[in-house]
Amino acid sequence: MTTPPNDITLSRRDLLAAGAAGTTALAVPRPAAAQAAPVPDANAETGVPTHQVVLHVNGQVHELELDTRTSLLDALREHLHLTGTKKGCDHGQCGACTVIADGRRINACLSLAVMHDGGKVVTIEGLGTPERPHPMQAAFVKHDGYQCGYCTPGQVCSAVAVLGEIRDGIPSHVSGDLTTRPLLSPAELRERMSGNLCRCGAYANILDAITEVAGVTP
Ligand code: FES
Ligand code: FES
Fold first, then answer.
1. Whole-number Cα distances in Å, 131 to 35, 83, 166, 182
2. Residue range 26-31: average pLDDT?
3. Which atom of ligand 2 approaches the CA of 198 most closely?
4. CB of 162 within 8 A of CB of 192?
5. How far apart are CA 53 and CA 122, in angstroms?
6. Which pLDDT score is estimated for 26?
7. What is the distance in A from the centroid of ligand 2 to the CA of 200?
8. 17 is a domain residue
9. How far is residue 205's CA from residue 201's CA, in Å, rounded to a whole number?
């Protein structure tokens, strides 16, 4: 049996050499603009990018040099030691980290501290004291709006902000008319509080507390 004629005859050595040449051709240097630019505020010792941040928290001014990746939640808990704000999921899903930033409630775990430079933040510690609690805090105590209490700071901050949202006429998913001020109804309160989870299931008592402060009939 004869071997068929072959126009191209490549040895294994030829093939490897061709592959190596191709790899070399691809390994061209990246254009200067595509290379990582030096970080201007990087800490000289650690190389970590940092930024000077001024936070007004509960009426006090704090100047912090923070890793730019620090969440507002970690800035509050780890740098300012305001541990009333809780870390539940750290993914924006439970509402345990709710604080009021410039009048609006936010999930502090989803917000970078540098985004609040110069801003005002109110945490559960800033709402009231054990001696002089905020009406919402007092209502949660009166109605047993908690069991383990882990979700409670977020629930209270959220509830305070919810009443403000309704007063300001901000509609929700269940608002019947987007052009008029929403009703202070239990349905509105339930919908607006739906981002604050309670693993203990204290929802009925939480709603009782909020409805008392809101002055609506359940
Ligand atoms: Fe922020 Fe759960 S800890 S939403
Ligand atoms: Fe325990 Fe809400 S009181 S999670």
1. 57, 19, 28, 34
2. 49
3. 2
4. yes
5. 16
6. 45
7. 4
8. no
9. 9
72: CA distance to ligand 1 center in Å? 11
Indicate whether 133 and 91 sit together in one domain: no
Q: Cβ(88) to ligand 1 under 6 A?
A: yes
Contact 164, 136 (CB under 8 A): no
Q: Which atom of ligand 1 is nearest to the CA of 87?
A: 3
pLDDT in tens, 43-80: 777 788 899 999 999 999 999 999 999 999 999 999 99
Ligand 2 atom showing the smallest separation from residue 201 Cα: 2
100 and 152 in a single domain? The answer is no
pTM for this predicted structure:
0.80
Domain assignment present for residue 14? The answer is: no
Best residue among 151, 158, 205 to mutate for probing ligand 2's pocket (most ligand atoms within 8 Å of CB) is 151
| pLDDT category of residue 25 using cuts at 50, 70 and 90 | very low
Return the pLDDT at 1.
Answer: 45
Average pLDDT over residues 135-143: 98
How many Cα atoms are found within 13 Å in the side-chain-facing hemisphere of 161?
Answer: 25
Cβ–ligand 2 contact at 189 (below 6 Å): no
Which residues span the domain enclosing 203?
A: 128-218
> Which token pair is 132?
């002089």
What's the CATH number where 194 sits? 1.10.150.120
